[in-house]
Amino acid sequence: MSFAVVFGVFALVVLFIFNSLTHSLCLKTKMEKEKQMRVFRTINVLITILLISSYVEVITVL
């Protein structure tokens, strides 16, 4: 398997874990639906940026 495929699977697992943790946070704090959507969107965008930057950094090293 190529590195891109392995990293893609890793990225999906990371996004799934963070979404699960965010969902637990929203349930425990009894957050409103509108606020939950903003929290999910913000966290997903930030994690995606982190994953893309780490992918680019690893590719430049290889």
The gist of it:
The protein is mainly alpha-helical.
Topology:
Layout lengths: L2 H27 L3 H29 L1
Shape: elongated
Give the averaged pLDDT, no decimals: 94
Query: Helicity, in percent?
Result: over 70%
Instruction: Give the SSE order as H and E letters.
Output: HH
Give an overview of the whole structure.
By secondary structure, this protein is mostly helical. It has a domain at 19-61. Helices cover 90% and strands 0% of the residues. The chain contains two helices and no strands. It has helices at residues 3-29, 33-61. Helix 1 (3-29) runs antiparallel to helix 2 (33-61). The radius of gyration is 14 Å and the shape is elongated. The mean pLDDT is 94. Keywords: Membrane, Transmembrane, Transmembrane helix. The chain crosses the membrane at residues 6-27, 39-56.
Q: What descriptive keywords fit this protein?
A:
single chain, 62 residues, mainly alpha, 2 helices, 90% helix, elongated
